[in-house]
Design goal:
- This protein has 157 residues and is of the alpha+beta class.
- It has two domains: 42 residues; 108 residues, Lipocalin (Beta Barrel), CATH 2.40.128.270.
- The protein has two helices and nine strands; from the N terminus they run αββββββαβββ.
- Strands 1, 2, 3, 4, 5, 6, 7, 8 and 9 form a nine-stranded antiparallel beta sheet that branches.
- β2 and β3 form a beta hairpin.
- It starts with a helix and ends with a strand.
Length: 157
């Protein structure tokens, strides 16, 4: 009889312990997911200015701020962008709205030279087509998709 009581008591304690471990595991996962979400939405660069009125960028020339060989360039003219993507020249119509900081370039065309490493060029043009916002300071142009910084340029002197 005492043996049955002891076994029943141990079962209850184990179940209680499993329930507590389950709760602790849920709390742990909730904390990890929250931290991951906060880190993914952290603002980089001038993201707090995204969606606000921006200075006009018509007639400016920019060079990608990354430390890579054959840096892509960006020239902005009235409703048009062009530049060099690392090997080939590219061009596109652009929609730039300074009042809301909107920037859009779709259907980007380019010359067709074959180069040793096309990865940079392919990635650059692909990312450039995703841009929908911009933030400009004196010597820096940042291109965003919503609040996510995609490309950062330095003004070409």
């Amino acid at each position: 009889m005492i043996f049955v009581f002891i076994i029943d008591y141990v079962k209850k304690k184990i179940l209680s312990l499993n329930h507590n471990l389950y709760q602790m595991k849920n709390i742990f996962y909730t904390i990890i997911i929250t931290l991951a979400m906060v880190s993914c939405t952290s603002r980089v660069g001038n993201a707090s200015k995204v969606g606000k009125s921006q200075a006009a960028v018509t007639g400016t020339q920019w060079v990608l701020a990354d430390d890579i060989a054959n840096k892509p360039t960006l020239m902005i003219e009235q409703n048009r962008i062009s530049g060099n993507a690392g090997c080939n020249n590219y061009f596109s119509d652009a929609v730039i709205d300074t009042s809301a900081g909107n920037f859009s370039a779709k259907n980007i065309g380019s010359t067709r030279k074959m180069c040793n490493n096309m990865t940079t060029e392919t990635s650059y043009i692909s990312v450039l087509q995703e841009v929908n916002k911009y933030v400009v300071t004196e010597n820096t142009l940042e291109l965003y998709k919503d609040n996510l910084l995609l490309l950062k340029f330095n003004k070409q002197q």
